[in-house]
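Much of what follows relies on a compact textual record of a protein's fold. An example makes this concrete, so a full record is given next.
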Amino acid sequence: MDLSKLLKEIKEKSYATKEEVEEDINKLITTMRDTFPKNLERVKKEGKKTDDEEKEYHDLTQKLDDLKRKSNLTEMKKELKEISEKTEKLFEKLKKK
């Protein structure tokens, strides 16, 4: 799935169950893992440093993994939206490099 399309879906979606949130967390993790290395490789080929972006990417994926273990639906929804916004900013930053 296209990352920007998925991020837009997450922002607009209202979740009714924890399972729905977990499903989108898994989609986001998978899409990030498919998308990030390609963008990172392109930036590295241009000779630009990517240490900060790599660290931020790993932090975001770790937060998503941790989020799946939470039990409070409201908290999960809020954090997923926050993480998706940070993910969007990270990938925009990589595109601009």
